[in-house]
Amino acid sequence: LILFIIISYTINTNLIDKLMFINIIILLYEIYEIYEMIKKRNTFISRNTIKQAFDTMDDGLLFVNEECMPLLMNNKMINILNEFESFYKLGNSRLIHKIIENISNSLIKVNDKTYSVFVSESTDKHKGFYYQFVDVSDSYKLIEQLENQNQFLLLKQSDLKNSLKNIEKSVTDNEVLKLT
């Protein structure tokens, strides 16, 4: 359609009008291209859009460089760091060092919270570490209760074995007495 308009317009006009018309068509095409670029740029993933996506997660996410300086963390991680800050009474990078030092068997405890920590090393553009803190407090409390109950049952089992041995000894002694 545009080509038809250009051809029909250029047949009946002088050279300057023809060039002016072609320039207007090129300008409209360039404006359209700029519009398409802006539309594509709006779908481009930025650091902010990544943070917004991470902020919706239930886990604490922390990216640190090789010197343990935070590069990116979500809101849940900020809350976790506040818990650790009140516990250890340290600020930013020293706090992160302290947390990393105290991770034992992929678990770290603060106050009444227990977090399972998954660590990955980044070898991409930004070298450093990725930490994912998952709140496992409820599960950990249940495991502790189960362990306590198991200890109690082991004690009862030992008591029952001793009682059974005493009963066997009593029965044996009674039979020996009857025989004599």
List keywords for this structure.
single chain; about 65% helix
- What proportion of the residues form beta strands (DSSP E)? 15-25%
Q: What is the radius of gyration computed over CA atoms, rounded to a whole number of angstroms?
A: 37 Å
Question: For the terminal residues, how far apart are their CA atoms?
Answer: 125 Å
**Unreliably modeled segments:** none
Average pLDDT score: 79
In which order are the strands of the major sheet placed? 2-1-5-4-3
How many helices in DSSP terms? 6
How would a crystallographer describe the biggest sheet?
5 strands, antiparallel
Look at the helices and sheets and give the structural class.
alpha+beta
Give a brief description:
With 180 residues, this protein is of the alpha+beta class. The chain contains 6 helices and 5 strands. Strands 2-1-5-4-3 form a 5-stranded antiparallel sheet.
Structure description:
The structure is a single chain. The chain has 180 residues and is an alpha+beta fold. Helix content is 63%, strand content 18%. It contains 6 helices and 5 strands. It has helices at residues 2-11, 15-42, 47-55, 75-88, 92-101, 137-179; strands at residues 60-65, 70-73, 107-110, 113-122, 128-135. The chain has a 5-stranded antiparallel sheet with strand order 2-1-5-4-3. Strand 3 (107-110) and strand 4 form a beta hairpin. Helix 4 packs across helix 5 (92-101). The mean pLDDT is 79.
